[in-house]
Write a structure and sequence with these properties.
By secondary structure, the chain is mainly alpha-helical. Helices cover 80% and strands 0% of the residues. The longest helix is centred in the last third of the chain and has 59 residues. One of its GO terms (cellular component) is nucleus.
């Protein structure tokens, strides 16, 4: 590869990968919590009579438990479309890294939340309306000047007509 660029930073694992790791860690800890020693202590009489059979039953139990949990979690992932949602969330987080303003968080008081969301919008809208109002007032002022100039011209023409009318008579 080219040696001129900055060293590549390994990408952080995606949420789907983190979720899978968490599930695997959970299963390992579950197996550790349900250790063979604990299992054997619970079924001490059977263990004393058949230690190999007890071990076999324990191994089957743990194996079935882990595969059952994995199947259930996979079913939840499939039904909830978690893979796509995790990827979408990763994409949103990546896009948000370049934002300068902090993300909005609810305060828990609906009135304040609505106010905090609406006030900036309403202030921006008020500013826009004031700008439009100034433009319209300026336009109306120019139209009023034009109307007054037109009236003055009409008055001049009426005087001219009157003067010519008197001169003609």
């Amino acid at each position: 590869a080219g040696g001129g660029g900055p060293p590549s930073v390994p990408a952080a694992p995606g949420r789907a990968q983190v979720f899978t790791t968490v599930v695997d860690t959970f299963l390992e800890k579950l197996a550790a919590a349900g250790s063979y020693q604990r299992f054997a202590n619970c079924y001490r009489c059977f263990y004393k009579l058949q230690p190999e059979m007890t071990r076999s039953i324990y191994d089957q139990f743990i194996s079935q438990l882990q595969s059952s949990i994995k199947e259930e979690i996979q079913e939840v992932k499939d039904e909830g479309n978690l893979e796509a949602l995790f990827n979408s969330l990763d994409k949103i987080v990546e896009e948000a890294k370049n934002r300068e303003e902090p993300a909005w968080r609810p305060s828990g008081i609906p009135e304040e939340d609505v106010r905090s969301a609406m006030v900036p919008y309403l202030l921006k809208h008020r500013s826009y309306l004031r700008k439009v109002l100034k433009e319209k007032e300026e336009e109306n002022r120019k139209v009023a000047e034009s109307v007054l100039a037109g009236r003055d011209r009409i008055a001049e023409l009426q005087q001219l007509i009157q003067a010519r009318k008197h001169a003609w008579q």
